[in-house]
Amino acid sequence: NRQVLLVEKPAGKLGPEHFKMAKATIPEPKDGEVLVRLRYISLDAANRAWMHGATYRAAVEANTVMAGGGIGEVVSSKAPGLAPGDIVFGDTGWQDYAAVPAKHLTKMPKVEPMTHLLSVYGIAGLTAYFGLLDIGKPKAGETVVVSAAAGSVGSIVGQIAKIKGCKVVGIAGGKDKCNWLTRELGFDAAVDYKDGAVFKALKAAAPNGIDVYFDNVGGDILEACLSQMNNRGRIACCGAISQYDGVPSAHGPRGVPGLIVVKRLIMQGFIVMDFMDQRDEALSDLQSWVASGKLKVQEDVINGLENTPKALIGLLAGENRGKRMVKV
Ligand code: NDP
């Protein structure tokens, strides 16, 4: 059983020196557990955030198998309700095999390609769906701005906002990603935050102001959006990737709480797990949009468990387009 261990929690930027490969025997599932053979491991910005300390989950610790979500096949089961051959999703860690309590796994439908269970029908798609529709509450004709727009969550947020009749502006790093958003995904405009002042470019891209901002990044980009929010606008706080890797900036965005008061803004954080009771309804919408071609699924699959650390480091640096995962 090959495993990727986190050998040390990074004080600054995450690097390959923080991980090492190890070998262990394939575990025997205990009562209530199943043995899962991993097929795909999900790479998430949050993997890095978990290294800072406990959040909505326990912190990841040094000298343990690196935590992370994965899709796999049940090999043997000591739990009712799961049988060999079933496809499951859960926090399996970065390894070939994991023995996991059945109550921590979600049985997944058999979908082709299986990778869609980690992208559009997985955490990324559901986060985009609930964060935009339940927290952002966009109305047709409104302007929606999304950051990390070419990433897994952001690329789906923008497309759902288009489906709902909104004007959509994406913020992403680099010309290529911006062109992809407007030419392939149907965004109305895109702002390259690596090319000069975001505030000015955003003003040109969203001349009528912003009604909904879906925030994946926090920091300076949140500050630039805050000042251009329309009265009674909504900010869906999904994540803060600009703060994850390295030492977070000393101060938060200016404009909080002043702009929230005068513009009567609603700024609300959310965790996708809170919406799982509505998952079937979301999946049925997502499936019909994918089937009709209204929602394009972009995946970035990297081969080999040994490449998982490099894949996460690259995701934090903006290498990925769409949902990044590793084929084990
Ligand atoms: P993505 O696929 O979106 O990849 C992350 C992207 O973030 C990179 O490709 C990069 O693109 C961009 N990025 C990196 N650093 C910065 C920076 N300093 N400023 C602006 N953009 C940056 O990753 P995920 O889908 O895993 O995560 C997206 C967000 O969603 C994260 O904030 C994550 O924490 C959040 N999330 C929240 C959930 C919830 O329940 N609330 C659930 C799942 C995810 P670029 O080239 O554009 O810089």
UniProtKB/TrEMBL annotation:
Residues 12-326 form the Enoyl reductase (ER) domain. The keyword Oxidoreductase applies. Pfam families: ADH_N_2 (PF16884), ADH_zinc_N (PF00107). InterPro entries: ADH-like_C, ADH_N_2, ER, GroES-like_sf, MDR_fam, NAD(P)-bd_dom_sf. Keywords: Oxidoreductase. CDD domains: PGDH. GO terms for molecular function: oxidoreductase activity, acting on the CH-CH group of donors, NAD or NADP as acceptor. Signal peptide: none annotated. PANTHER family: PROSTAGLANDIN REDUCTASE, PROSTAGLANDIN REDUCTASE 1. This is Enoyl reductase (ER) domain-containing protein. It comes from Bradyrhizobium lablabi.
